[in-house]
Amino acid sequence: MIQGTSSGAGKTILVAALCRIFSNSGYSVSPFKSQNMSNYSYKDKDFEISRAQAMQAIAARAEISPHMNPILLKPLGNYRSSVFLQGKFYKKLYANEYYKKFVLPHGLNLISDSLDILRKKYDLIIMEGAGSPAEINLEKFDIANMRVAVKSNSPVILITDTDRGGSFASIVGTLQLLDQKYRKLVKGFVFNKFRGDLEILKPGFRKIKQNTGKPVFGTIPMANFSLPEEDSLGVKPKTMIWNEKNIKIMDREIEKLSKLVNSSINIKAIERLIK
Predict the structure, then answer these.
(1) Cα separation of 31 and 174, whole Å?
(2) Which of 219, 226, 3 is nearest to 129 (CA)?
(3) How far is CA 179 from the centre of its chain?
(4) For the segment 123-156, what is each residue's pLDDT rounded down to a tens digit?
(5) How large is the C-alpha radius of gyration of the chain?
(6) Which of 7, 113, 127, 164 is the most buried (most CB within 10 A)?
(7) Do 185 and 211 touch, CB atoms closer than 8 A?
């Protein structure tokens, strides 16, 4: 499972890259994000999910499925969202209603059902968390990060954004705020969006290992790819038309992304985690 120190750290892109890398290695792969909040979706004739998971399915060379994103929240404003469950519209809920009346009584069971369906079909599920697992004010209602990792017995890789600054503190702070039962699931870190000489980071990597006992799996350099963006950071993503031409362009971009990530992080170490 890929989790991040913040929104926009690079979880979506790293999951897409890993889906393609492991697909190229002969695994049958599926992406999975239990809960996504986005107004940018992929619409099939029978279902609707976040377009990020649709893009990741293309990366995995998998048939796009509503089970890849069992809960989609489409914000309406005033703390209210349209809620889609396994691709179907459920109802409009205020945040307070969603957390107290849906998340704990029903959310995890729905997520487990979708995850079980995918696990029966694929060799490998690469999961994406949401936001940060260390949002301690929302921990009780978080069904997108550590609860799902525990339920699926999944190792966690934490990705951080070096371009924002404070990436070392973000990693250590995230771990410190996690309960011990969750902290042990984190197996290592990936630094994303780095500009400059990698040698500058290496003393920090050694200190991170000393402080946490966990390794850095690699550093992904800053790069731009023509892939669908999320809308969680105030950016205005481009509209995506899901036609054959655009999907071919997306596929080529995913292949370039996967080659960059494959050369930047220790894929063999990650593969050992999942075996």
Answers:
(1) 24
(2) 3
(3) 21
(4) 999 999 999 999 998 889 999 999 999 999 999 9
(5) 18
(6) 127
(7) no
